[in-house]
Design brief:
alpha/beta; four-stranded antiparallel β-sheet; eight-stranded mixed β-sheet; Aminopeptidase; 2 domains; about 25% strand; about 400 residues; Alpha-Beta Plaits; 11 helices
Length: about 400
């Protein structure tokens, strides 16, 4: 990328810094849950309109697609930021703490939207320097199935113009502010929700021979499910199956009629994912027969495996290294967390990368999805400049 152009991009990111801080803090103080981002969407639309940036709204409910066209025809690059918050009560005490009880931007989606809004401001100012078009996707409902990415695609998000590449960033408290992280190929796992009901026959705990004990059956079933990871999964495919919720509403002297189990299944291969679902059903059936109970199984299929396109990711990383220096660009490990950006990556060559948000002296290192998550706001300059530089760098080729 042209070093002079990056210098201009960085200067503009600094120029807009105070505006972006105010933008992010407004979003953080006024979080909305998945599929309910009405005020968030209206706020972003108003900001885009004041900047003279064209957009279409109400895509899949609250989604927005903004566009900036260059001085001539060329390729199209899209940038995505999500908007929804989580059902968490914020514990941070600051001027921009959540005003909505039990709702918090604990995953940094306020930062993501701010960075692509900032990138839109920069690209708008430099639009005479580019050939082609940059699209800015403000996406609802990343946190809840079926995911806003899927719904926006089904609503015809890119019906008028499908981008040649799609980029997204995500906050990452494991890296200091000012740094970026990349991983090409398989990066994040698929995620399926598991729901089981073990139905037996309850009774007095002192007379277990007269009952069909769903608790003992559930205990064996939980253990048996782990053979999917330890014995059935191909050794080269990362696989996780975890049961996170068990409800057996009996008492010290009461065996209940049923036990409810909730969990998650995650992997890095779509074919094995389907095979594993079949194994889950088979194990449930066999385990139920062994203990004389019925194990009802429901699998809610969630987000697919997120695969970063190798060419797009290497190009994005190269631009980041030129823009920020190689010392500020890091390689990431594969993660078993999931992201609905994977729906986009199935349709369009894509790169999902990380934005460092930790501060000096151990500040802002609380994990994602915690009640104390926050960021070093200098990360917004990096995220904004990175998104703008990547968009314009891709259009240079």
């Amino acid at each position: 990328m042209n070093p002079v152009l990056y210098s201009e991009i960085h200067a503009l990111a600094e120029k807009h810094f105070e505006k972006l801080i105010a933008f992010r803090r407004h979003l953080h103080a006024n979080p909305e849950l998945s599929y309910q981002e009405f005020k968030t969407s209206a706020f972003i639309q108003d900001a885009l309109a004041k900047a003279g940036i064209a957009f279409n709204a109400k895509i899949a409910g609250t989604g927005i697609l903004a566009e900036v066209s260059g001085s001539a025809e060329g390729k199209t690059i899209a940038l995505r930021g999500d908007m929804d918050a989580l059902p968490i009560q914020e514990e941070n005490q600051c001027d921009y703490s959540s005003k909505n009880a039990g709702v918090m931007h604990a995953c940094g989606h306020d930062v993501h939207s701010t960075c692509i809004y900032g990138a839109a401001l920069i690209v708008q100012e430099l639009r005479h320097r580019i050939k082609g078009k940059v699209q800015f996707v403000f996406q609802p409902a990343e946190e809840k199935l079926p995911g806003g990415a899927k719904l926006m695609l089904e609503a015809g998000l890119f019906a008028q113009q499908k981008p040649d590449a799609l980029l997204a960033l995500h906050v990452f408290p494991s890296l200091p502010a000012g740094k970026l992280g990349f991983k090409s190929g398989m990066y994040m796992a698929s995620a399926d929700e598991l729901y089981f009901t073990v139905k037996g026959k309850g009774g007095h705990a002192a007379m277990p021979h007269q009952v069909k004990d769903p608790i003992v059956a559930a205990a064996h079933f939980i253990t048996a499910l782990q053979t999917i990871c330890s014995r059935l999964a191909p050794p080269g495919i990362p696989t996780v199956l975890s049961i996170g919720k068990v409800i057996a509403n009996g008492a010290t002297n009461v065996i209940p009629d049923k036990v409810e189990l909730d969990g998650t299944f995650r992997t890095m291969d779509e074919s094995w994912r389907e095979a594993a679902h079949n194994h889950i059903h088979t194990i449930a059936k066999n385990c139920g027969e062994m203990f004389g109970v019925a194990i009802e199984t429901r699998i809610e299929k969630g987000y697919p495996v997120l695969v970063n396109d190798e060419r797009v990711t290497e190009k994005a990383r190269s631009i980041a290294e030129q823009a920020f220096g190689e010392d500020n660009v890091h390689s990431l490990e594969m993660r078993m967390t999931s992201e609905d950006f994977a729906w986009f990556a199935q349709e369009i060559p894509a790169c999902f990368f990380r934005l460092g948000t930790a501060g000096d002296n151990g500040k802002f290192t609380s994990g994602l999805h915690t009640s104390t998550f926050d960021i070093d706001e200098r990360a917004i300059v990096t995220g904004t400049a990175a998104m703008a530089a990547m968009a314009m760098g891709f259009l240079e080729d």
